[in-house]
Write a sequence for this structure.
């Protein structure tokens, strides 16, 4: 067994102070197996040691919440004895090092989080951030990530139905790959991870354990140096066909009464799954490492415990159920092995070749992991550091048509068709609305209900004002679900930030969470699951490059009757275009200011949460009552971009005739004021009167029809807009 030196401790990502805690927990020096287990369980990725303090402040409860944070995924009641189970996870560092497998195994891992709880996965989504398209590595990264997401999701038979993709120089050295899965289960067949029942057998199922992914959790808890390529062995390798077998085998066993507890082997593999099961159940655990199915010769207990080989699960079964369970897993051609038992010792004990190679008290591993209150600067200090000031001069547009074409063809707004055409969005036959709209909509199989889901975040707002940016990320998810007619129910998140040991970065984290929490409370939109990904910065790009603060939000809502669903496409000529919400022409941090004037400046747009809720409820009623023919929320690019997207969706143009001429037409058309929607209707007076009657600002701003998008002093053919939108990916990818 290797000697534990300060260098060995440092290589395991533990600080000297943390190693002292290990010594106190054990009352002696650890061996290498024990050190490895402490290192992964106390890594940022597994313990949330820099974020736990602040995560506790988020609202997580509502009458429809069955399970909030703390399990594999969040669970909400969707009526009729059914539940939606969902979560979002990051696979950022692995995807930068090896984009195909990094993204693929990210999808595989989040699928396991959901079906572990008894749900059949019904939809995958993603939130992707890349660097500048002209960065020498970026085309390779985009191609690899998209192929990995499609390759895994398509093979496993779960539709990829939505997501978002953005580009910014801040992600040059550290891309973000966040994956989300939504599943459906019966409320009386939900499974949890707490191991109980002294003497109950612990079984290992799925694929064999190899040497891939060892120290993946530790690697994901540090920033990148110049040696990122050398970390390729820490990236796991996925097999979607095995995952499909694993889903079916687990769901078959779940239909019996054999399972006491179940946990997938995700980050830190066999270590985290066994520790979490035992600690949640207040029990101990004994594992015989000689029984672990291995695919490589001579694997040591250290390698077995830290491997992140994919498509593996750990279960506690009722005594006597092992033969039945084994028969099911053998039928699906998967490994099955009884590798240990639940004990009453409160310790994790590992045996190998007849000797005890690890004996750790479980409490310090799980409950007593380090928790840090990292220092952070004040809001005023942060604003000075970020250089954020109010816009002193408001530029005007010399050519609205040219600006619109530039925005629609730019990296943020250009068509993502090249991406989503690589994903099977229709497998399962329940996809009702997919990429390109405000929210994806998937029918709950065999019912008229549907789930609406969306991923959202505007990192440039979060950088300029973390609090307002955090509010806006939640509000936009709420808005997107409302726009299709869904009732927003709950949120999952993936909190992507740079180095929390820098007070300015920690201020971003704290500010974003404060804004998210206030928005969730105001909108009755609790957070039920999530993931934190820190240290997303790279020394490889020179000088230390931190990502923009990116708290990606995954929202889920419910349509009681999917036939009432709204879409963004104009439905015919002659409908009235109505803007819901007031327009002040906020250009700070707008896409128009950045893309057309090269200025990343100004304050983030403020979010009025009272109006967000009021407008969302109003739009949902319009959709449910069948009074609107199309709905779209107003976000990046403002009113004119929203209307253009609605026009391009069905090839029907629009003529804008705003009732009040702004002194700055560009601010009115491209400003990114929040809480607004565009709707079309054949009964404008009724819609406007309904808005007036409850104090909502609404105005008729044009009509649908023709083959152009036009307004005061400008007119752009839809054919030119569509060509601009399609050209970016087509030209960049060369097809």
């Amino acid at each position: 067994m290797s000697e534990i030196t300060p260098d060995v401790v440092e290589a395991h990502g533990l600080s000297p102070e943390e190693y002292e805690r290990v010594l106190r927990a054990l009352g002696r020096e650890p061996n290498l197996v024990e050190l490895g287990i402490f290192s992964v369980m106390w890594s940022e990725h597994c313990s949330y040691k820099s974020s736990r303090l602040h995560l506790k402040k988020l609202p997580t409860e509502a009458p429809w919440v069955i399970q909030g944070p703390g399990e594999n995924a969040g669970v909400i009641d969707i009526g009729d004895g059914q539940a939606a189970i969902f979560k979002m996870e990051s696979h950022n560092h692995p995807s930068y090092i090896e984009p195909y497998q990094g993204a693929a195994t990210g999808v595989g891992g989040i699928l396991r989080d959901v079906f572990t709880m008894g749900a059949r996965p019904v939809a995958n989504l993603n939130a992707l951030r890349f660097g500048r398209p002209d960065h020498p590595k970026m085309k390779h990264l985009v191609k690899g990530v998209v192929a990995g997401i499609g390759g895994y999701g398509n093979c496993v038979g779960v539709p990829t139905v939505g997501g978002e993709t953005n580009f910014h120089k801040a992600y040059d050295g550290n891309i973000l790959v966040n994956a989300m899965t939504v599943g459906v289960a019966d409320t009386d067949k939900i499974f949890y991870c707490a191991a109980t029942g002294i003497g109950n057998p612990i079984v290992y199922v799925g694929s064999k354990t190899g040497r891939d992914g060892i120290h993946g959790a530790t690697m994901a808890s540090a920033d990148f140096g110049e040696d990122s390529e050398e970390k390729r062995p820490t990236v796991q390798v996925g097999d979607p066909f095995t995952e499909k077998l694993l889903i079916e085998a687990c769901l078959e066993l779940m239909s019996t009464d054999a399972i006491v507890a179940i946990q997938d082997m995700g980050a830190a593999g066999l270590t985290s799954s066994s520790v979490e099961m035992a600690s949640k159940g207040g029990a101990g655990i004994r594992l015989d490492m000689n029984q672990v199915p291995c695919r490589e010769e001579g694997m040591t207990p250290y390698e077995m415990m830290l491997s992140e080989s994919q498509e593996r699960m750990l279960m506690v079964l009722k005594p006597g159920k092992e033969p039945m369970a084994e028969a099911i897993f053998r039928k699906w051609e998967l490994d099955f092995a009884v590798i240990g038992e639940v004990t009453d010792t409160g310790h994790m004990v590992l045996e190998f070749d007849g000797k005890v190679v690890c004996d750790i008290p479980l409490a310090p591993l799980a409950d007593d992991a380090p928790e840090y209150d990292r220092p952070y600067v004040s809001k005023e200090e942060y604003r000075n550091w970020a250089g954020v000031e109010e816009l002193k001069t408001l530029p005007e547009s010399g050519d609205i048509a040219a600006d619109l074409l530039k925005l629609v063809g730019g990296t943020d707004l250009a068509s993502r068709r090249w991406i989503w055409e690589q994903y099977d969005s229709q497998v399962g036959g329940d996809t009702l609305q997919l990429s390109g709209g405000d929210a994806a909509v998937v029918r709950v199989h065999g019912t008229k209900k549907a789930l609406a889901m969306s991923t959202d975040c505007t990192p440039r707002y979060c950088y300029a004002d973390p609090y307002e940016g955090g509010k806006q990320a939640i509000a936009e998810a709420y808005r997107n679900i409302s726009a299709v007619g869904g009732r927003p129910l709950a949120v999952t998140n993936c909190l992507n930030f740079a180095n929390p040991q820098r007070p300015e970065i920690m201020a971003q984290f704290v500010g974003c969470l404060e804004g998210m929490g206030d928005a969730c409370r105001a909108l009755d939109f609790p957070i039920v699951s999530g993931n934190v990904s820190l240290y997303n910065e790279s020394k490889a790009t020179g000088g230390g490059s931190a990502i923009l603060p990116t708290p990606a939000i995954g929202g889920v809502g419910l349509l009681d009757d999917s036939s009432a669903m709204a879409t963004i496409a104009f439905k015919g000529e002659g409908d009235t275009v109505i803007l819901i919400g007031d327009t002040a022409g906020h250009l700070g941090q707008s896409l128009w200011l950045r893309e057309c004037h090269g200025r990343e400046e100004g304050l983030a747009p403020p979010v009025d949460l009272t109006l967000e809720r009021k407008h969302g409820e109003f739009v949902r009623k319009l959709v449910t009552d069948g009074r609107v023919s199309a709905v779209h929320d107003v976000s990046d690019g403002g009113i004119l971009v929203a209307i253009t997207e609605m026009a391009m969706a069905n090839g029907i143009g629009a003529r804008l005739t705003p009732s009040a001429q702004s002194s700055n037409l560009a601010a009115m058309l491209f400003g990114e004021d929040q809480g607004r929607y565009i709707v079309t209707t054949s009964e404008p007076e009724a819609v406007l009167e309904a808005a007036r009657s409850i104090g909502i600002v609404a105005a008729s701003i044009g009509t649908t029809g023709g083959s152009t998008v036009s307004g005061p002093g400008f007119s752009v053919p839809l054919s030119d807009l569509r060509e601009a939108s399609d050209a970016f990916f087509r030209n960049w990818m060369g097809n």
